[in-house]
Design brief:
Layout lengths: L4 E5 L3 H16 L4 E5 L3 H4 L16 H8 L5 E5 L11 E6 L7 E5 L17 E3 L3 H10 L4 E3 L5 H9 L5 E5 H7 L7 E5 L13 E6 L3 H6 L6 H16 L8 E8 L2 E8 L8 E7 L2 H14 L1
Parallel strand pairs: 1-2, 1-3, 6-7, 6-8
Antiparallel strand pairs: 3-10, 4-10, 5-8, 5-9, 11-12, 12-13
Helix pairs in contact: 8-9
Length: 298
Amino acid sequence: MSKPLIIGSRGSDLALWQANFVRDSLKQHGIASEIQIIHTKGDRIQHLSLDKIEGKGFFTKEIEEALIQGLIDVAVHSHKDLETTPPEDLIIAAVSQRADARELLLIRPEGIDAQQTWSLKSGAVVGTSSARRKSQIIHQRPDVHLADIRGNVPTRIQKLRDGHFDAILLAKAGIDRLQCSLDGLHVVVLDSNELVPAPAQGALAIQCRKGDEQTIQSVQSLHDPRTAECIFIERSVLNRLDGGCHLPLGVHAMRTNDAWLIEVAHADLWNMPVRRFTLRATLAHEAIEEILAFINKA
């Protein structure tokens, strides 16, 4: 290419890690690129929890608009932040290999009780702004108190250390990518059968303009077909339920030999009963229909 690709990204520590990961991966294949920071609605509104912000795509819309307008060539997103119905002019050109999709429960020493589930003391204050996390936590620990928390990953960890909460929930992928210090905190790794991750959690979406074949071809080295298969199932369920960050939905698909193993947790609202189930299916479309049938029947 005659000029470097322009990569659009949010400005948070984690978003910039993701953009730099894409830039460095492209560089390994002889493709030069530069990062341009774009501020989104979700970045500007910090006083509301995610389930209270109106609309969808509040971490991605401005970046997508810049891509459509030709101000950037590539957009890098946390795949879970993207709407399941993309703008007509854009395409997901590559899906990265998935990082660890599990959740971490980080607990201050004062919040530990080894006799309780997850070693979290009775009546603990847990910080999270995710409707999905809220619903699943109170489903298993109805005694805890939930409190909204916003900010990037290091900011949330510091708020925990400062005593604003007894514990917080974060995606393990973000902690691992940023190599955040968790010294002095009790760390509980929650497997998908304990707290089901968000659809597409741990994967990156690399977005391009339709018809920009040169750029699309340039990012193909980042594409992981196996992850893309899992993401297809998870996000198809989210799409069929017309869901976004407001919907308390966890879906995590894994390929085991010749079958799919899928964990699902769904609630109509974060403070309503959670329906949890695990299913096996041979084909992806069969799995999607079975999940939807179970949710709709319930």
